[in-house]
Design brief:
This protein has 13 helices and no strands. It has helices spanning about 5-10, 20-25, 30, 45, 55-60, 80-85, 90-95, 125-130, 150-155, 160-165, 185-190, 195-200, 205. The model is unreliable at about 1-10 (pLDDT under 50).
């Protein structure tokens, strides 16, 4: 045997990739249940069983449809005529990239047209609408934030009434200082009418002795 044959027989050690190491790991089910065998014995009945026609029909692989075509090989072979073809002027025109209009923001650039020396005159109603509106003669603009204070306002002395009105209102809690058992003087000196006395009497059915 030649030296080349001896070199081919002695294979160099191949380093395993990370994917091959992951696939070489045992399954979790075998680590969790080590007593469960991965190969089990087949019974004699299963070895000598004869499949029925229905099982044979179900075991037959499904045939592809009549219109099925195999995948096209990649890369697809290009014919010599296609390689030596010369594109027409129309095909070269369609192969050019589409030119897009330049837009600045949302404004549209209009094409510059020819300048005519003839000037057009607007209608009187359009000129009236184009005139800016004027403020009402009685309109007053906003008052400035800073304004001069008069000497009289600076030397003014507030009266006692204004001081009382400027004091904050004293607010009390609900029912604070209220006695619900007090009876007004008008209620003490009131004379009930005949109807009120009649309504104040107890019912007869409640007055009967049991």
């Amino acid at each position: 045997m030649s030296a080349r044959g001896n070199a081919s027989c002695q294979a160099a050690p191949v380093s395993m990739t990370i994917r091959m190491q992951q696939l070489a790991q045992p399954k979790l089910s075998q680590l969790r249940y080590p007593d469960r065998p991965s190969l089990w014995e087949v019974s004699e009945r299963a070895l000598t069983a004869v499949a029925s026609k229905r099982l044979c029909h179900l075991a037959t692989p499904k045939a592809p449809p009549s219109a099925w075509q195999p995948d096209r090989p990649l890369p697809a072979p290009v014919s010599r005529g296609t390689q030596n073809a010369v594109a027409s002027v129309r095909i070269c025109q369609l192969a050019q990239p589409k030119k897009r209009l330049d837009l600045e923001g949302s404004s549209w650039k209009s094409k510059p047209g020819p300048l005519n020396r003839s000037t057009s005159k607007a209608v009187a109603h359009i000129e009236l609408l184009a005139t800016p509106k004027r403020d009402h003669p009685n309109f007053e603009s906003d008052r400035s934030v800073f304004w001069p204070v008069s000497r009289g306002a600076r030397n003014y002395r507030a009266s006692q009434k204004i001081i009382e009105l400027s004091a904050p209102k004293e607010r009390k809690a609900l029912f604070e200082g209220h006695n619900p058992f007090t009876i007004s003087r008008g209620a003490l000196s009131a004379n009930p009418s005949h109807r009120i006395q009649e309504l104040s009497l107890p019912l007869l059915r409640k007055c009967t002795s049991k």
